[in-house]
Amino acid sequence: MTTPANEPKDLQDMTGTEAAADAKRGPSIATRERRQGSINPSGETPYLEVENLTVKFPTADGLVSAVNGLSYSVPLGRTLAIVGESGSGKSVSSMAVMGLHDRKRTQITGSIRLGGDEVVGLPENELMKIRGDAVSMVFQDPQSSLHPLYTVGNQIAEAYLVHHKVSKDVARKRALEMLDLVGIPNPQRRFKQYPHEFSGGMRQRAMIAMGLVNDPKLVIADEPTTALDVTVQAQILDLLNNLQKEFGSAIVLITHDLGVVAEMADDVLVMYAGRCVEYGTAEDVLARPRMPYTWGLLESIPTVSAANERLRPIKGLPPSLLNLPTGCSFNPRCPYKDRVKGERCTTDLPELLPVDGAGAHTSRCHLHDKASIYEAEVAPRLG
Amino acid sequence: MSMTTPVQDNVPANGSVTPLLQVRDLKMHFPIKEVAGLGRARKVVQAVDGVSFDLKPGASLGLVGESGCGKSTTGRMITRLLTPTAGQILFKGTDIARLKEKDLRPFRRQLQIVFQDPYSSLNPRQTVSNIISTPLRVHNLVKKGKELDRVQELLERVGLNPEHHNRYPNEFSGGQRQRIGIARALAVEPEVIIADEPVSALDVSIQAQVMNLMEDLRRDLGIAFVFIAHDLGVVRHFCDEVAVMYLGKIVEQGPREQIYGAPQHPYTQALLSAAPDLGTIRGVPPKERIRLVGDVPSPIDPPSGCRFRTRCWKSEDICATQEPLLEIKPRSGSGHTAACHFAEPKVDLIAETA
Amino acid sequence: MLYFVARRLVSALSVVLVTLIVTFALFFVAPTDPAASICGDRNCTTERYNEIKENLHLDRPKVQQFAEYTVGIFAGRTFETSGVKQECNAPCLGFSFKNDRPVTDMLKDRLPVTVSLVAGYAVMVLTIGVFVGSMAAKRRGTLGDRALMSSTLILSSVPYYIVALMISLYLTILYPILPRGGYTPLTDNPGAWFAGLLTPWLVLGIYNCTQYARYSRGSMVETLSEDYIRTARAKGLSDRVVTYKHALRSGMIPVITIFGLDIAGSLAGAIFTERIFDLPGLGNLVLESLNNYDLPVIMGTVLVASIILVAMNFLVDVAYSLIDPRVRLS
What are the TM regions of this chain, as residue ranges (chain C) (predicted)? Predict the structure, then answer.
């Protein structure tokens, strides 16, 4: 069950040699997923390690691979943002980390380790002990994610009581402390109020209080500010940043908003059609992206600072997971596939390789001169 | 709330073009009943409280603000899905604010609305062809037998496959549905389209496609847009003129460059500063960060004087007693108005990468 | 909260008052002549008819009659027939000349029977029905869920009186596995009380449990897919706590509405059950008095039934507000 603590280091070595070997061998259809993704771009010892995670579930039209061979890792005190559009598998993969997927229907393979301990395959009663304690979650819509019929205070206290054998009074004190910590004024009064008596921003603060009440090692925040107004979103992002400094948790931030990523993330993982297509530090991925899909995302965003140039959307639609294109999943929408010799984009699935031959910034693309294409063509358009 | 903003004087007399749509002191007060002891108290939600603006042919005005600021209610009043409590909506000189349904019909054709949620705003039991051709029939815009041709023409115009006219909305993705919604609005050849958060339910890459489509329509067909959105980036991209709303009132209005480059009202400044921006990583990070405290007050019992004063760092006594007028400030550019006693342009709020 | 209860109480009382007026109007202003019906068809002389009218104050203005009736409810009144004075103590709901007893006394005899029947029934549907429904919801899509739900569908598609008659015939008479229905007051002999009511409880309970199970299942399936249920699971709560604490509380809100009306309806007379199992409850009383054209009894029963209905609605409202804090505001 447990993995030796020194494995990350071994992995790193292996990755280097494998990558070199791969470069010589030339590209192949990647049936065997590689382990390099679990290296953290920062090089620190990770708390959460996800390795070659695949999540499949049956639908009326057949078995769907919502997540395919995903690997990443997050050390304590660091924030990884998983970016992608709807259906890219970003939420599904984090639900698997929490063991919150439908266990009867979903098939999970690969490995998810928390502090070295394997989570995949754990029975429900073991998972329950982790959920909300070592790993907690902050959801998108605080309006619907809080139970409307229980007081906010009780819901937070309950989260503490599940994992601590203490009296209700101790749990109450802890909940009050947390309400205060997340910046809810007048905690004594707020404790007794119901969610509908809270504003949107206050509700999300309460959700965060609930998520942090057990001092978790890992917080998964699934679109935590999407349902909030801009000024409130800024407050909540600041709060999350400050609390992370105080609690030192690892954060996995799931979002579609690259602006939020820029404000919050240390590392970024871009997902497309169930696969990781680019992974690296936030600066690498946002300032030196090396994958046409990431370029497309960056070029589609109308920002407050951009002039009124025409947006350059990615053409077409994301593929159906039931019917993925052969080769690179992004190839039908990719404006650069003609620059790759032969038909490789439509026949071979590119592997996730270091963009400059080595290092922690990886992308999944056959293009050879990614760096020069970006600098010469994409970057000028981004301004 | 009897204080009326004398906007008419402030609207720049831009000589040659007469406005297509003039909104004057528009108000929407929803009566509600609230529990008070044993009985119920009648109260009023001041969803929109005195909004005025002009829209020239082919122009695009952005209404920005956070939830509850009244921007959507304003859009619904202009298209007369709601009847305003007070104020005027002059379309080509005719006040349509109080017109009866029968007299309103010719104007309905001119003023179309596109809704936010492409999933709930299309009838799932009707084919696309039906959805688009119904307004054509209602307004007698096409000869019998020619309907399908027109529908296919419209589908092509919004970038959908004309062969798909017989499909049902659930066979389309969110972005495609929004295109159908736009095609429906286009069918009656409107002069104004009110777009109520048209892209906020869409994924980033699809959002850009729909934005570009609307821009094409504006350019090619000369349709004027009132663009309602909470996303400042989207508004900056699409609109020549921007009005920032807070708690039912316009607090600042002006040409895009002025609003984004030198905002005067503290609320506009806070909004811009709060918008997460890629510039922080790629370019120069903004020099100053403004963080508002607390939440928007209830529109049932808005603060006296300036409605923003409860969250404003510049607030002084005068703000509670005297409501600031939306007027041109000493240091503002032409056509740039702000409703603040202490208005002052602030630059450097956004990372200028361009 | 107190204000909420007070407000609901005021509106409940006003509904009762309206019912009182309407019932009075229906029976005493109606074209049928109460005096004639009391007098009977045979040996009714004009003299006797007029005497009845006078004694019952039927010759007085309707408004005065109504006032007397209403006052009688609170203060009691005295009726005089054929020179005999009949005391009708408060709460006086009229006097049955057919049975020579005050209506209130007759209702007092019958009400405990119906209340006993309904109380047992309520316990059954609320425990078994809701539990089965919640279990099915928790295991939705499984074989057990489908088997449970299709069997409840089959059972509930057979008309109730057929189920009741069959069980009564086969299980208590032909093959006496279950005790025969009957009523012994609880205070006289608890054992006999229980035995006599067991079969009616089971029949009424099991039949209606199917509907409660289906209803609770639907409501619970919806609740279990709510975001806050996911939050509860994410806290590390066990499936049991999530289902029976977090989900059940919300899931019960729609069930309570049905339950309140159902119980009120049953209290006003579970006519089939009382008839088939020979229980002298309110339902049987209504049937008897309808046959006898015993207007005061019918009117009294209708009034009591409507008060029960209003009271149950009031209780449902209070239960709502206890469960859902948002109700207290609206």
Answer: 12-30, 115-137, 158-178, 190-210, 255-277, 297-323
